[in-house]
Records
---
Amino acid sequence: MSQTGIDRVDVLVVGSTSDVRGLAEHLQDSQSVLFLTDRNEQEQRAERAGVSAQLTTFETGFDSEELTADVAFLGTQRDSINLLLAQHLRTSHGVDRVIVRVNDSTREKAFDDIATDTVTPIDLYTRTVQETLETA
């Protein structure tokens, strides 16, 4: 299912890890999704799960100039790459809604003018544990 020419998708999911690939798998039930990764094994697993996937390099942007999406989720493990990709998607591909995983919450302000929304894992983990404790 690898694609070289890409039509517009609802959600572009970008990352290298199984949790980000899992997000693409969950979203595919209700959205058109493309998963971009720099890891061959993640691309293969996504394709086995029926998710359109493409192998790329993050440091140079994306291989396809035709890439367009309504929403992008950037979930690489490097904040500098997420920032670069957010800028690239907004300026070169016209993606207006960009959600970025910020791995180090002290860097969240760097994304204020680029990302539509940010998600920090520590905030999600803390909120989940607190909610669990409150219902226990």
Note: The domain at 9-135 is CATH 3.40.50.720 (Rossmann fold).
---
Amino acid sequence: MRHPLCMGPQSSYHPTSPQLAALCILKGVQLFKNFIVILMVLFTVKSYSADVLNHVGIVKQVVAFPHSYGSYSVDAKGLLAIYVEGQPKGCNTGQSRVVISTDHPLHNSVLSMALLAKSTGKKVRIAYFNECTIRPESWDFAYFYLLE
């Protein structure tokens, strides 16, 4: 919002001192800088957001395994991999699976739905981010639907 002393001809007071005029210019420059920062943030968020892809098919396999192999630890993070028939390879080079970590808030629900889909042969829609950050060459989980 403009300072009342910085208003144009519609205001009853016009800045006459050079200091007041400089203050009005600085306020305008600060508003412009804020606008530029907001634009930069918006463009940065868009450029770093991953696309969400999805695939419809029948669950062929559900596999659970530790995030990193080595010695056994109850504190180790686990992963759940869901293989859906005809799904593209992870990041176009890896395995045809979507992974979700055991510490993800939807892990238990996704596990239940994947096992139900596998045991009944019902079609699912599995969505995944167009990136492989959780496990190299495996799609990152986005959401999961039972279709039938």
Note: Strands lie at 52-66, 78-84, 98-101, 123-129, 139-146.
---
Amino acid sequence: MKRILFSTAALIAVIAAAPALAQDNNNIINGQINLGDVWAGMDMAVYDAGYVEGTAAAIGNSFSAELGGDSGVWTNQRTTGAIESSLNATVDWTEDVTLTSAAVGNTVSILSEPYLDCGVDDCPYDDASLELDNRQYVNYDPTATLTIWANGVGHLNGTAAAIGNSLSVEAWNHENNIDTRQVVNDDVNSYVGAAVSGADSVTLTSAAVGNTVSIDNLMD
């Protein structure tokens, strides 16, 4: 089976690095400012393939950390330029197709795990805590566009997602103190346009989200 993967991403330099990994007692201050426009675009044409995946992603600021022990994190992200992603795809006679266009202003992802480098029964960080102060601001409209022309495909999945600010925290601590503020000062736009014939199944999603926070406390 032929497998074809397409990917394009426009991101500031900081997210090219791996997630920050820290243990014991951690104090992290993160300040990110994106002043210019961020744009990711892709035009693709595929014929007679087994599996095709295409992604266009534009992100203003991104911060990711994996933490063990007591941790204090202060993060401030500001995006003042346009964040735009556009994916145009023509696909014929292909078994499985997955297409994604994503535009994100600011994103923070934190995993806080006291047992990162020790066993659950003998870990010195059993009473570890997380202190998080998160500030995220978007001043211009994130926009994601996905346009599809498809014929004779098996399964087609297409998603356009535009998000202003996103915070995700997964914590294994007994104590977590989180203070977060998210502000979007403009529109958030998502659009999917599709013309499809001869497909077994089609799933299309267009999602526009201003601000989102997800906190998962995994301890009893």
Note: The chain has no helices and twelve strands.
---
Amino acid sequence: MTSSIPNGFSSEELQKLLDNASTEKCTSDEPDTDIAKLVLELGDNIEDYMDNMSTEQGVPPQLLGKVVMLLTCNRMIDWHSHISKKHAERGELDQAVGWARDAGKFQALANILSTIIVDENDEFTPGLSD
């Protein structure tokens, strides 16, 4: 039997191990339910605000929704491209490629959105709304 494996620990030894143990935050694949709940509430509030504003301004809500999605896609493209560049600068090429691919996915979403006509006055669908 190997002598490096102890047969037991005294309470004092266990306490020393606890005192010297790192205090790493437990990570989980599950989203923080408080954050998830807050984000969903904010999303609902934004959706209500968009409905109210489109009614007040006489803008079709589906057109406003499309434009917000396009703006959000562009924001995510910029963010993912920025993070990809930072990883590349640090030589973290695998991470850089992953972030760049996700930027491309958002570009694809924006491209698809810009081919969908949502209103007869949709000027955000180049070449298709005429």
Note: The chain has a mean pLDDT of 84.
